[in-house]
Amino acid sequence: MKRIKKRSFYRYEIKDGVSLSAILTPEQSRCGIYVCEFSDGSEYVGKSRYVTTRIAAHRRRWPGQILAVRFSPAPLHDLDQVEQDTVAQEVAVGKALRNKDLVSMPLRSEALDAIIEKREQSGWLRDDGDYVIPSGRADLARQRRNNSTVPNRLAAHADHADVVQVLAYYVGVCLPRPDMTEQRFWSVSNMPSTGRGKTWRRLAAVSVNNVEALVIGEYREHTEDPWIPAGFVNTALATRVPCWAKDLCKIRHYRSTGDVKSFGFAEDFWQVIDLLADDDIYDGARDLAYGLCRKGSGMMARFHDFELADEIFIQIDDWIKAYEDESESS
Question: Is position 114 within any domain?
Fold first, then answer.
């Protein structure tokens, strides 16, 4: 992993009626990275060939809110990477950023960039809806399912279909290009032995890099009691917790990524989808998964269950085809 160089910034206070162009010296470059400091304590990191023009636009968008601007000149060909590095450094020290596209990039990742173009990554972060998982991955899954002779441990479970649908929903909406990042960047386990006991067992878990992102399991108070659905969805630490979910949220710590916000569910597997229906939790789950993908491949790849993944992709493909058929008939 490349070391991210710490940059030097010039700080300029913003006063009403005074433009940034009047503050910068004529010989000073206008091309570089800037950080807007807002009155509410938040910041915004951006890049521009002409920083004075860009800051003027921001002042029109956020009138009276920008207190100061920090600016660091940078070559035009380096702007994208330097902006990403600056965002990563700000997030690492706990700054609240107004940025949307880059706040989930804690580290450089040439591995992910080699698979997914940065423009497509930005489109996925904006959730513009342009990307649909190609049916080829589901076709391969159906072929393997028809020829499989290996018993599926989860298939014997009474709630097998519900678990697969919940997994498919998470994979389809929270993971960038799941068909291309499968196993290397994310993996799914089939009834893993992790943490298994007499009153708790996992049915499936989606891990991204080396961190569990979604865990679906069951618990019971006593060994003679029936099993009850339970589990949790992890989200980025900066995730805003809605009032209705405060009792469901706790902080979990992972050595490889630090603290995350974890939203628990019980009684019903479908509560995962209810959680992700909230915009803040949805964004937080995607931010965490994407940030973990940016870290590169992890050690969980060797536990990836292709058979369960096949079921997930078949379910996603079935949903897509059903939606297309409904659109054509309406």
Answer: no
Q: At CA 179, angle to CA 175 and CA 183, rounded to 5?
A: 80
Number of domains forming the structure of the chain: 2
Two structure tokens written together for 134: 């190609």
Dist. CA 247–CA 72, nearest whole Å: 43
C-alpha 101/C-alpha 3 separation (Å) is 22
Indicate the residue among 99, 114, 148 that finishes a domain.
99
Domain boundary among 99, 121, 153: 99
User: What average pLDDT does the structure give for the chain?
Assistant: 86
- For residue 259, give the amino acid letter: D
β-sheet bridge partners, residue 234 = 262
Q: Are 286 and 100 in contact (CB under 8 A)?
A: no
Q: With beta carbons less than 8 A apart as the criterion, state whether 248 and 265 touch.
A: yes
Digit-coded pLDDT (tens) for 121-141: 888 877 877 667 777 788 878
Q: Classify 277 as helix, strand or coil.
A: coil
Domain that holds residue 155: 135-329
Q: Tell me which residue has tokens 């058929």.
A: 325
Whether pTM exceeds 0.85: no
Three-state secondary structure string covering 65-116: CEEEEEEEECCHHHHHHHHHHHHHHHHHCCCCECCCCCCCCCCCCHHHHHHC
What pLDDT digit, counting tens, does each position of 205-253 carry? 999 988 999 999 999 999 999 999 999 999 999 899 999 999 999 999 8
Q: Is residue 310 part of a domain?
A: yes
> Are 175 and 75 in the same domain?
no
Q: What is the pLDDT of residues 11-61, one digit of tens each?
A: 999 888 888 888 887 778 889 999 999 999 899 999 999 999 999 999 999
Q: Name the token pair of 296.
A: 């590169």
Residues β-bridged to residue 201:
218
How many Å apart are CA 205 and CA 207, to the nearest integer? 6
Asked, for residue 5, whether it belongs to a domain, the answer is: no
Please report whether residue 130 resides in a domain: no
